[in-house]
């Protein structure tokens, strides 16, 4: 797999998250073509390989995390002077662990160390940002990640982390399912009480320098608009081109 040409004129949109990115026709590359700055890959540990798939039935030997994501991202970063996009906004790779947390993260650690040239690293609490920041979700071995003196991955937090004193370098995101927090499904106007709750939720996360992402959101412009208004950081979507068109029309690009 080859990365998209570095001279392609695309404006990166930092509020975009490609949900289950690997299910698109061209994993990663479709997202890059649309200027997405965050992509999501589910991984399964199988015979010491980290394979990308949504369910066990979708596992294929050649679809490794390295082949689909890490290798093309490295190629892209080398072509763009150490950035995924020439203009250099942050880029996130959300890795959703589907198999045993400890065993999978132990193998993942070894893999990520091989990409130290492009991955954001924390050494003894000091963060060095690079082309790609990895965030671990799903079956996340929070204890192992927290204890690492040198680590190439951070933790995808839960709503309970809104009250956590963990540093943002360790828990940079707070993610939750939309339905766990809100009843509104995008039909009609968002209730005032829920709009107020959304804004307070985002503000609380931002106070601790954490990004906000909701998953399983109703994938429609009415919800995207409310997320933008509330200053949510990442809009979760399967509709890459539609979200890009919406954001470009709004001309909203969170720095």
From TrEMBL:
Question: Which SUPFAM superfamilies does the annotation name?
Answer: PLC-like phosphodiesterases
- MF terms in GO: phosphoric diester hydrolase activity
Which superkingdom, per the lineage? Answer: Bacteria
Gene3D superfamilies documented for this protein: Phosphatidylinositol (PI) phosphodiesterase (3.20.20.190)
GO annotation (BP), single: lipid metabolic process
Q: Which Pfam families match?
A: GDPD_2
Q: Which InterPro entries does the entry mention?
A: AIM6_PI-PLC-like_dom, HAT_RTT109-like, PLC-like_Pdiesterase_TIM-brl
Q: What is this protein called?
A: Altered inheritance of mitochondria protein 6
């Amino acid at each position: 797999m080859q990365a998209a040409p570095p001279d392609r004129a695309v404006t990166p949109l930092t509020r975009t998250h490609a949900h289950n990115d690997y299910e698109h026709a061209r994993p990663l590359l479709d997202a890059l073509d649309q200027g997405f700055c965050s992509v999501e890959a589910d991984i399964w540990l199988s015979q010491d390989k980290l394979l990308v798939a949504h369910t066990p039935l979708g596992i294929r030997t050649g679809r490794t995390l390295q082949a689909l994501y890490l290798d093309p991202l490295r190629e892209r970063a080398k072509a763009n002077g150490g950035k995924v996009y020439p203009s250099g906004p942050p880029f996130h790779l959300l890795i959703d662990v589907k198999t045993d947390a400890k065993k999978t993260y132990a193998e993942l650690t070894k893999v990520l160390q091989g990409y130290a040239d492009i991955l954001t690293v924390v050494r003894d609490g000091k963060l060095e940002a690079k082309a790609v920041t990895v965030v671990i979700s799903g079956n996340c071995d929070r204890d192992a990640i927290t204890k690492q003196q040198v680590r190439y991955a951070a933790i995808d937090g839960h709503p309970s982390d809104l009250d956590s004193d963990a540093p943002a370098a360790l828990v940079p995101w707070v993610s939750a399912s939309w339905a766990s927090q809100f009843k509104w499904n995008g039909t009609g106007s968002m209730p005032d009480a829920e709009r107020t709750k959304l804004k307070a939720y985002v503000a609380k996360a931002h106070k601790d320098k954490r990004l906000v992402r909701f998953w399983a959101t109703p994938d429609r412009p009415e919800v995207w608009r409310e997320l933008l208004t509330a200053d949510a950081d990442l809009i979760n979507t399967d509709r890459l081109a539609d979200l890009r068109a919406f954001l470009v029309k709004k001309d909203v690009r969170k720095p």
